[in-house]
Amino acid sequence: MDLGQLAQTKTLGALRIVQEMEREFKSARDLDARFDDAGPDRNLGLLLLSGAWWPASIGSRSKGAQHLERSVELAPDYPENHLCLLEAYLKWDDRKNVRRELKIVEELLPKARKVSPARPGAQSWADWDKRWKKIREKVKKVISWFCG
Question: Cβ(49)–Cβ(61) under 8 Å?
Answer without folding.
Answer: yes
